[in-house]
Amino acid sequence: MTASKDQVVTIRYTLHVENELIDQGELDYLHGHRNIVAGLEEALEGKAPGERVVVSVSPEKGYGLYDPEGVQVVERGAFPKDAELVEGAMFYAEDSQGNPMPFTVLNVDAQEVTIDFNHALAGETLDFDVTLVAVRPATPEELEHGHAHSLHGHQH
Ligand code: ZN
Questions:
Q1: How much distance in Å is there from the Cα of 107 to the middle of ligand 1?
Q2: How far is the CA of 156 from the centre of ligand 1 (A)?
Q3: pLDDT tens digits for range 4-44
Q4: Alpha helix ranges (H) inside the chain
Q5: Residue 52, exposed/middle/buried by CB under 10 A (0-12, 13-18, 19+)?
Q6: pTM metric for this prediction
Q7: Residue 32 CA, ligand 1 centroid: distance in Å
Q8: Separation CA 43–CA 47 (nearest Å)
Q9: In whole angstroms, what is the distance from residue 62 CA to residue 60 CA?
Q10: What's the 134 CA to ligand 1 centre distance in angstroms?
Q11: Closest by alpha carbon to 50, among 4, 11, 6?
Q12: C-alpha 68 to ligand 1 mean position (Å)
């Protein structure tokens, strides 16, 4: 069995950006549902357990290009009173369809908060070193949810 649409794939991975280790671990994801960045999903397509994939993913197929318009200044009053407004804090806004849009607080002053909707890894080339551990068919429930339900995957 190989990584293809509607299969749950277990991978062991490291992620480096400019030779700095950003993340590592083991992960289950549902292939073909954009649970992982597009460039990595494409590189894993058709691979079998035991295979190793070393790939550099461009920002376009990773977390996107850095968009200067993603940096915005909002009034402090736009946040709930109990929100902990500190540099680096993450919050979620909603777009007009109700989809969550995460952002990071860049700066806080008495009246205003500068926020950034760019992903922390936007504009970065992602160097993945991945070993495929296992592949299995997704359950109907997993397909309905659009993500893997298992030890290293999504928890309810
Ligand atoms: Zn679920």
A1: 35
A2: 6
A3: 999 999 999 999 999 999 999 999 999 999 999 999 999 99
A4: 38-44, 140-145
A5: exposed
A6: 0.82
A7: 16
A8: 8
A9: 6
A10: 20
A11: 11
A12: 34
Q: Distance (Å, rounded) from C-alpha 6 to C-alpha 138?
A: 6
**Residue 4 alpha carbon to ligand 1 centre in Å:** 19
86 C-alpha to ligand 1 centroid (Å): 32
Cα 155 to middle of ligand 1, angstroms:
7
- What are the structure tokens assigned to 58, written together? 């461009």
pLDDT digits (tens, 9 = 90+) for 103-152: 999 999 999 999 999 998 999 999 999 999 999 999 999 999 999 997 65
Cα-to-centroid distance, 151 and ligand 1 (Å):
13
Using the mean position of ligand 1's atoms as its centre, give its distance from the Cα of residue 100 in Å: 17
Q: Which domains are assigned to the chain? A: 7-63+121-145 (3.10.50.40), 68-116 (2.40.10.330)
